[in-house]
Amino acid sequence: MGETAIIIGAGPAGLTAAYELLTRSGITPVILEKSGDIGGISKTVNYKGNRMDMGPHRFFSKSDRVMNWWLDMFPLDTSTGGAATISYQNKKRDIQSKPGAAQPREKDKVMLVIPRLTRIYFLRRFFAYPIQLSIDTLKTLGPVRTVKIVFSYLYARFFPRKPEKSLEDFITNKFGKQLYLLFFKDYTEKVWGIPCNEISAEWGAQRIKGVSLSKAISHAIKTMVKKPQGDLGQKGTETSLIEQFLYPKLGAGQLWEHVADAVQAMGGTIIRHQDVKEIVTYNNKVTGISTVNTLTGETNHYSGEYFISTMPVQELIAGIAAAPEEIKHIAAGLQYRDFVNVGVLLKRLSAKDKKTGVYKEITLDDSWVYIQEREVKLGRLQVYNNWGPGMVKDPNTTWLGLEYFCNKTDAFWAQTDEQIKKIAIDELISIELIHPNDVLDITVQRMEKTYPAYFGTYEQFDQVKDFLEHYPNLFLVGRNGMHKYNNTDHSMLTAMVAVDNILDGVKSKDNLWSINTEQEYHEEKKETEEPKVKVVHPNAHKPSLVK
Fold this sequence. Notes:
Region (Disordered): 520-547
Oligomer: single chain
GO cellular component, one term: cytosol
Pfam families: Amino_oxidase
Largest sheet: 7 strands, mixed
Helix content: 25-40%
GO molecular function: flavin adenine dinucleotide binding; oxidoreductase activity; UDP-galactopyranose mutase activity
Number of strands: 25
Domain Amine oxidase: 13-431
CATH class of the largest domain: Alpha Beta
CATH architecture of the largest domain: 3-Layer(bba) Sandwich
Shape: globular
Strand order of the largest sheet: 9-8-20-21-22-17-23
Number of helices: 18
């Protein structure tokens, strides 16, 4: 009998680890999945022929290893000739399927090249994302706000808050109180559910860098002659804001369902509805996993030589009886944000004319839109039509995903689906993006522990990591598995490196934790680039893949 690796979770990290083990070793993976689905937060829900992802999932990475892995699974669509050029952050990258892969056996199992446009909706107008401190933006905000922004920005530069303890302090010092109040405070608190003055300044420092007053002035001068772009459609959108990314024809989850099929075809096992209750340890090694079937209540035990966990660290530690009370306390105090996605099918998108009050049809080419309007709970809006033709059953309809960030303990989560549907429609009407008569259908999807949070007991998280180092055959990978804000490509890399370590006999796991710490993964301008200020939300949750 060969060796076995028990993998907790059938999301991108868990499936990647299983595939790597099967193609590179004689170790047999057994995946234990709590839900009945494949793909974790990267799954795609098929609702009456309309497909919806749980948040935006772009397939783009600065890692050749990951890009090649994806293209091995799904080659580029034949319309590209097996090659394409992807542009991002004013850079370009040529990509190519392997020779002979341009004609896939199954026509739907391909990667499409999708244009990306992302904007902010605020004051019933669209602003470029990341926010640009340009004349265009200031014109759209109006003279009164502009004066307040300029003076508060200058005040913050000459009289910064000291000591800089919170995210509120950090952003105010960088951009002034007015910009903080307009474009950061409300949206950040929507996402994380706590005041900005309770989030550490270090987190903001990691996400926003290289911004200065001189850059802002330089950019403002360069854009003085440009036309404002505050209209409700795409007219006037700068081409530099449009990027491209790869995307499976039938949604992000399509690729992971394909990987799951490949894993099982090669001899791996995926067992669903397995809720992990105990991590059995002996002599500083993990020896087994005990689960409860969420459908039948049946208990099961799985033994192996290696254990790879993508489950939330909070639950992992709770299942280790040998964990000291202090470690259990820290793990129990780790916090997460949960997620409700409301799919809304429309005849059309329409906006109210401010002069006549008449609704007029509008077209949005945005992949997703950050909803900055403070009077609604809606945080982000996906336009699935712009993610490829496979996402919408009838292309003459508009298929939206309304994203709400909450906790399971919130009143919002506790409401019925019908109540949430009503809230969603009422909010779209109130921010003047739809007419109620255009609603055709609506569905509600919920996802727990979508975003690991960097507050609560997180400042003590190193103690948890140090404790888990005592188990050399246990590898933490993925977003929740490491309680780290990983994108999908980062999560995949952690799985790949974990398998590297298993096969190479590497004892240190430092190389796992170093993934997603490189400067290049942050969406920001480099010091050597053209002096253009783009203000990125520190919580602009990297939609799963590298921005």
